[in-house]
Fold EF-hand domain containing 1.
Amino acid sequence: CPPDVRAKTPFLGGESWKTSFHRSQTLGYRNGYAYSRRPTVGIGGERLYVNQLSQAELDELASKRPILTYGKPKQAPPSDFVPAHVAFDKKVLKFDAYFQEDVPISAEEHYRIRQVAIYYFLEDDSMSVMEPIVENSGIPQGKFIKRQRIPKNDCGDHYHWKDLNRGMNITLYSRTFRIVDCDPFTQVFLESQGIELNPPEKMIFDPYTELRKMPLRKYVTPSDFDQLKQFLTYDKQVLRFYAIWENANSMCDEKRSFIIHYYLADDTVEVREIHEKNDGRDPFPVLMKRQHLPKTLVDKKKTFPSCVLEISDQEVQEWFTAKDLAVGKSVTLLGRTFFIYDCDKFTQRFYQEKFGLDFQPVHIKQQPPEEIIPPYNGFGFLEDSLQNCFSLLPTPPKKNIIKMLENDHKVLRYRVTLESPDPIDRNRCFILSYFLSTDMISIYEPPVRNSGIIGGKYLGKTKVPKPGSTVENPTYYEPADLIIGATVEVFGHRFVITDADEYVLNYAESNPDIFPAAALQSLQDHFAPRRAAKQATERELSETGRNRQELEELVMQVQDQMRHHNYLSNGSLREAFLHQDKDGSGFLDKAEFLALCTRFNLPISDALVNKLISLCLHGEDKISYHDFIRAFS
């Protein structure tokens, strides 16, 4: 029937309007295992109201089996199967054991006892052997046998937990282990399985390891003197003496300087050599290493060898102490006699406070070694060759960087002639350049056509020494030495300075402290005519510039007046001036010029014409007609 009719129809007997007729599930799964559950909803989705039993009642009902009251009794169903990996999950048997290992290459131990732990995993009957890690043992420890089923014999059998017990030996891969004990869980498990355990045994420890754990032996110093107190009191405190050793066996009777160090912490002595520059000796700083030096030896017996490597305490009667060292006295150390002539301030203060002694230094006169400089070999500059005398590996001489930066690209140029008896050489002209940054001189000869002499570079950049200069104290030419008329001797050739660049005069006037007054005056006298001519030229150019400007203004005025009178230039004026100029110089005499101006009757005022003629006048009687004609064009 339709839905609206069904809703209005009353429920009839035997009819049901339920829509869900399935049964609820009574079996569920959790963590991969099936378990039973009681449904709470019945057929049709109705809630089931059942008795709520306690957990104890549920367990009792689960353990009971149904009993038939009639008929033949049936056998109870078998219990549920539980796999081993579920029943024995995370259940491990642990046994404490050890094994003995031979040590054939050690003189301190003949065998070694190594403790291990044997684990038996019940879920898969596998075993593993672990060795605990001991600090500083020197043996790779940890996992001794990885987890696996270990074979028992050659027949294919494997070890089972029934084969393990306390107080027994077990062989795993040809190594015999002694099981001494097990943990409580292992003991309870084996006893629950009906295995009778042997009594536990005591674990055996490694004798060498136990020996290392013993405290170190304490040695008592037989001496009454407390060396530890001396070390703590005088640690890092050293007495320093300055001494010389006179080597009488040497051919030159040399005196070598040394430093004697006396260490107060342990009464040891050290002798160090002071090396001087170019002394010709190997750079070994220590002559005698730090050691106890014997002062007096016992009487040698006939059986005592004459050469020994070390001297023991039984052979020394007395050692050197701080009392044996003093300023102004000689001391013999291992067969060498040193004369102490001074000490440092700490040593003076120590002896004054400890022994009440006041040391005074002894002045030793030592002649400085004579420096012999070999003659100049002609290669390079004198400074470069001199570096060979200072070190085996010569380095370039230091340059004045400040001077090079300040005078970079500053060059003084002079014109010089060669002083020679040959007339051909006397006519040769050279350019001498003095570089202020490096004090070097270069000479260049300009090539002259058809002279028969090849010009070019005559002298490269080099320092030129003055006549009479020596290798020990070389003196070079300076800017003050280069004046007009001076003679410059360059490696045997004499040059006379005849002229100079104007920059030389400017540099000399800006640096009067470098140039003497006489040299500066000679340069000024030489350049005086040149400066006067230059000033006259500048003055003439300035006047010409002013006249030219005034001429242009006058030309503009003339052209304005001509426009006012409507004057048209027909070119006859230019032709007349050109015809009158016979030589084509552009200049005419004053009389001829005035006659031509009167003939053409120019329509401008006479004052303006006279002023224009005065501006075009060159000299006393010559007039440039080109500028005059330009005003009427």
Notes: The first strand starts at residue 27 and ends at 30. The chain has 16 helices and 25 strands.
